[in-house]
Each structure stands twice: as structure tokens, then as C-alpha cells.
Amino acid sequence: MPDFVVIGGGIAGVAAAASLAPHGSVTILEMEATLAYHTTGRSAAMFLINYGGEASRPLARASQSFLEQPPEGSADSSLLTERGALWVADQHQMEDLQRIAGEGHDSGAESVLIGPGEVLHLVPMMDSDHVAGGLWEPSARDIDVAALHQAFVRLARRNGAEIRTSSPVTDLNQVGGGWRVSTPGGDVDCRAVVNASGAWGDQVAVMAGLQPIGLQPMRRTAFMVPGDDAYSRWPLVVDVDQGWYFRPDGAQLLCSLAEENPSRPEDPRPRIEDVALAIERINTATRLDIRTVNSQWTGLRTFAPDRDLVIGEDPTAPGFFWLVGQGGTGIMTSPAYGALVASQVLGAGLPSELATAGVDPRTTLPDRFR
Asked: CA separation (Å) from 3 to 146, 155, 201, 209?
């Protein structure tokens, strides 16, 4: 019998398992035939301090050391690549640009307001008629999502964690001071359950007889278009109102409408109208003249009602821990929230690196929805 069952094999589940495994036996239950099939496997993540809610920004700061120097043997190459992030605004968006600059200052991001000339120096293909200013964050970096996910898997397995794929949870019940988790392959009894099931988080809770939080999965589509070697050093470029973004990806450009359209938990497929609108907006703001799409995909980013993370023990069900609602920050904050939920499951104090970064566990507790 394992001490802990983690439901979900995406980035959240394996991050939790990696932090729990040194302290007890762990079983990860993943409903798909492969890990990271849904949101994690479709994420083009960046380490970007000036992004996300009140709780996620300290968790991002606390994750930086792991991302820069992953534990020995967990990664074959660097998890981060220099990129930079550039928020751009037209003359009607300058007030919003100032607001984002203020949020970046408050969260400790090394960002600076720049003029149109500096924006065009960084990204010469921007349309000068569209650009009134920018916010430059040079410390933003690309994250190798697959390598980060694999680093957590290696750390979990190094300490004996078991991973069961094709194992959807069909029922959860409190049994003898612990939990019984039912799957088509049989029941698994454990001391504590970590619900890291992403868009399916509320469904898992309902199976356990708990009140749902009100999680809302949101669609987001990304696509690849032909690029140029001259684009390879460009930063991530984001419309200040998040109406679109693009960034280099090898010999291509990765583009998105940055949409948030409500969805049920599912395996979503791209919609041609979302891709077309993104191309129209990017072509309006730049001289890229995008005409061809090489590939496209859609993932779900799941938010709690207040759009911040939910991490902690359900106040109505001892031993049931939530790790959901990561929205668009789940990759870059994963080292820290894995450590945070493990400390809660184990009844230990807040890890020092999290405390130093200003992480306040009270801001993520599910109590706020009860």
C-alpha cells in the first residue's frame, strides 16, 4: 500500500510526486496511456516573473533556482534558454502598459519601459505605425517543458515512485483514516491523495464526495508558421492586452491568439477561426505577412474562480489535497508548488526557499472556496 496517491501525471502531479517520494511510497495514477498528454504536453512555457496572480509570482521566484540548476542527474541539458519578453502597446494601450510595468516592479521583475525605437531594434518586423511603446523583461527565458517534466519523473522514480498509466480514477472513498482510490485495474489504499488532475480536478473531488471548487478550463490555441534565421534572437512578443503573441521556435515562429474560451474537460481541437483571427491581429501589428500555417494544436488552461492556484488540504476531507488551478503559470511554478504541497501533506514547515521568496501558503488554500 503506498503512502500517497497522486492523481494526474502532468507537470503538477509529477512535481508533487518528486517532492513526496523521498518521504514515503508514492503511486501516480494517470488516466491516459502516456504522461503529460493534455496541457503539459501542449505548453510553450516561459519563465516570466511579471505574469500571473498574487500567489503564483512568489512561487515563480521560488522555482528559479531549481530551473537554473536542476538536481544532479535529473536533466541532461539546461532547462532554461535565454529569450527575453517584450510587451508591446499601440497609442491606445499605453495606460495598460504602465499598469503591467507597475505589476512587474511590485513582483521584482527586472523590466523597463522602452520607446518605439527600442522596440523596433529588438523586433525589426514590428509595424512602426502600431508601436507606441514597450515593456522589456530581459530575464524572461524559454522553459524546456518536456525536460522539466522528465526531471520530476526521474526524481520521483529515483525514490521508488510507481507510475500507472491508463489508470483513470473511478471512485474515491475515505477508509480507516485514509483513502481508497478505485481504478479499472483495482483499488489503491493510501494515507493521502493529491488531486493534480488539471481540468478534471472538480470531477475527481465530486467522486470523493466533496464540493467542487468551480474550476473552469479555458481553450488556448497555438500554431507554427514559417520563420527565418534572422528571427531566432527575437524575444517573446506579447500584445499588452494579450490579444496575441509570437516567439521564435527553431526555424519557425510559434503564434497564438492568447484566447481564453471556456470549455468542458476534454481533448480539444483547434478551430480555424481562432487561428485566422490570430494571424489577422499579428499581421496588423507587424510586417510578417503570415500566410501559411505549418501545424496547430489546442490545450486547456484551468483556472479557479479567483484565477489563482489552489494548493492545500480540503477543510472538509482530511487527507485530500488540492493541486489545481495553475492556469498559465503551472510550468514555471512547478518546482515550488511541488515542494509546497508535499510540505502540507507531510505536515512539515514551509521550506526555507519558499519562505525566502515570499510564498504565503494561506493565499492558495482551498478554504477560500468553502
From this structure: 27, 17, 21, 21
pLDDT tens sequence across 249-290: 988 999 999 999 999 999 999 999 999 999 999 999 999 999
Look at the block and give the residue holding cell 505577412: 289
Q: Distance (Å, rounded) from C-alpha 207 to C-alpha 76? A: 39
**Residue 174, strand partner residues:** 179
Region of residue 242 (left: phi > 0; alpha: psi -120 to 50; beta: else): left
Rounded CA separation 143/306 (Å): 26
Distance, in Å, from the CA atom of 347 to the CA atom of 344, rounded to the nearest integer, reads: 5
- Set out the domains of the chain in order of their start, with CATH numbers: 4-75+144-214+306-369 (3.50.50.60), 85-138+216-303 (3.30.9.10)
Residue 218's contacts (CB-CB under 8 Å, 6 or more residues apart) are 259, 260, 261, 262, 263, 300, 301, 302, 303, 327
Look at the block and give the residue holding cell 508535499.
342
The verdict on pTM exceeding 0.85 is yes
Q: Identify residue 229 by its one-letter amino acid code.
A: D
β-sheet with 80-82: strand ranges across: 46-47, 141-143, 80-82
CA 336/CA 350 separation, integer angstroms: 11
